[in-house]
Protein 1
Amino acid sequence: MSTSWIVIGIIVILVLFAFSAYNRLVALGQRVSQAFADIDVQLKQRHDLIPNLVETVKGYAAHERGTLDEVIKARNSAMSAQGPAQVSAAENQLSGALGRLIALSEAYPDLKANANFQQLASELSDLENKIAASRRFFNNAVQEYNTGIQQMPAALFAGMFGFTRKDFFDLGASRTEVEAAPSVKF
């Protein structure tokens, strides 16, 4: 009879541990989802700012149509991207296009002096800093989640419960360009 109690006790302990591991992994997964949603909010604000910036530049640099079209194309691509991998690739392209758009202001002193352009460029710089902070938070959450599903003894249960590795918000080959907020000089 005492052997059966020991077996039942071990089974109860294993079940309690499985519940605990599952709840912890669910919480970590929710943190990753929330962190990605935070990035999404910042990116939507950035996407909303871009048409105003393009219209302001268009008034001063109408013959720079290629650069303006490239920014709009990159914005549309970024808005339709899904998931961290696609979003990070699309946003990387958008950041490059925005950098070229901001660089146009150097060639147009009237544009550089325009109050509307200065305000939009300042808002863009602020948003870039917020996006960078959100990316760091997301990547930290992903790192904690991935560690959680790989550490023993939770690793024994993670696969059974359907927890799989998540991808980081990778900035691709031009990481150094994207990590720095665009410099806006007036």
Protein 2
Amino acid sequence: MSTGWIVLGVIVVLVFLAFSAYNRLVALGQRVGQAFADIDVQLKQRHDLVPNLVETVKGYASHERGTLDDVIKARNSAISAQGPAQMSAAENQLSGALGRLIALSEAYPDLKANANFQQLASELSDLENKIAASRRFFNNAVQEYNTGIQQMPAALFAGMFGFTKKDFFDLGASRTEVEAAPQVKF
């Protein structure tokens, strides 16, 4: 009789651990989802800002067609990207193209003095800061989630419940390209 109670007690403890681990992993997964949605909202704002910025630059630097086309292609690629890895790569291309576009203002004093351009550049700068903060928050949430599925006792149940490792929103191989100052050639 006492062996039955011990077995029942062990089963109850295991069930409690499984429920506790499951609930914690669900909460961590929801945090990752929310953080990704925050990035997505800000990226959509950035994508909406790009055409206005390109149109403003067109009036002053119409012979810079290649740079303008690169920005539009990068924006379209970023809009159609799916998942953190693809979005990260596409957004990095867009960041580089936008950097080259903003660098054009140095070569065109009239453009640099244009109030519309200044406002759009300021909005873009603000959005870039918000996106960077959101990426940090997302990557922190992913780190906590990934750690959570690898820690005991959750590690015993995570695979069984379908929890798998998530990818970071990282600059990856293009980190040197994004960190390098854009070069403008005439």
